[in-house]
Amino acid sequence: MRTLRHLVLPLLFCIPAIVAAQSNQPTLEARLINKPLYLRGLWRNDNLRFDGLGRLTTPSETTSFTLAGMDVTRVYLQGDGLIMEGRRVGLELEQQDARTRVPIQVNGADEPIRIEITLAPGADYNHALSAIFVEDLASLVPTLPDYWQVYATNNFLAPGNQRPLHSEASEKMLDKPINKGGKESITKPTLARSVAPEITPAATNLRYKASVIISLIVEKEGVPTHLQLLRPAGLGLDEQAIAAVQKYIFRPATQKGKPVPVDLNVVVDFNGGNR
């Protein structure tokens, strides 16, 4: 009998922990509604389904993190699933140190988004929700493309995580400064061919007017490399600006008549209309 008592007591102590782990309507609403959520996987589709581990089970393209926000307005448990409904949200970065969440518009109305997680009734949804959403931009930094890394590290992470614009190796190969004067002055590179960037539907519908500033290195061959966002705009425009500038061709900088690599800042304007 003593042995049986020792077996029963640990099981009794486990029961409150199991109950506490279960998700219910009030706790889910408190976690999701009125929170600044972003899709960790940067999914583009507006009807998404996930399994109990937070793995996507329906096809979806990806998008910029500046188009991957969500405002959850309704949460409900239905059978073996959790359903979240709300609106897709974009991120504007047009002003220094300013980040503004704005509803994405489609045909003059907020773009709806619906997410479903399939899991056994009464189960805990917290693990899946943590795999699907983040509530802060800092959590996205490690997964962002290279051209975002300097800006995102310096602006989304805590102070002390600053990154230089160019690596030490890149800095060493550059010939600086441009046009200092004297016999060894360097002539600036000039643009030989540009490509017009595409504007995103989100920016068009919001009549968003902004500029993107990109830092790059113009190589001796006149091609741009080491692109980094100096001042992004958001709403997916930064990716479009990068895609366009990658196709630019320059007449390279020269020193003593020979081409040399130099750093350069390029401004890409998006005239989405007056706001």
Short description:
The protein is α+β, with helices and mostly antiparallel strands and 275 residues long. Helix content is 24%, strand content 32%. It starts with a helix and ends with a strand.
Beginning-to-end CA distance, first to last residue: 79 Å
Q: What is the approximate shape? A: elongated
SSE ordering: HHEEEEEEEEHEHHEEHEEHEEEE
The percent of residues in helical segments reads 10-25%
Count the strands? 17
Radius of gyration: 25 Å
On the 0 to 100 scale, the average pLDDT is 86
Number of helices: 7
> Given the helix and strand composition, which structural class is it?
alpha+beta
Q: How much strand content do the residues show?
A: 25-35%
Unreliably modeled segments: 1-21
Largest sheet, described in full?
A: 7 strands, mixed
Count of individual domains: 2
Task: Describe this protein's structure.
- The structure is a single chain.
- This protein is α+β, with helices and mostly antiparallel strands and 275 residues long.
- It has two domains: 2-143, no CATH class; 148-271, TonB (TolA/TonB C-terminal domain).
- Helix content is 24%, strand content 32%.
- It is built from seven helices and 17 strands.
- The protein has helices at residues 2-21, 25-32, 126-132, 146-156, 168-173, 201-205, 237-245, and strands at residues 37-39, 47-50, 69-78, 81-92, 100-103, 105-106, 109-110, 112-118, 133-134, 186-187, 190-193, 209-218, 224-231, 249-251, 253-255, 258-260, 262-271.
- Strands 1, 2, 3, 4, 5, 8 and 9 form a seven-stranded mixed beta sheet that branches. It has a three-stranded antiparallel beta sheet with strand order 10-15-16, with no helix packed on it.
- It is elongated, with a radius of gyration of 25 Å.
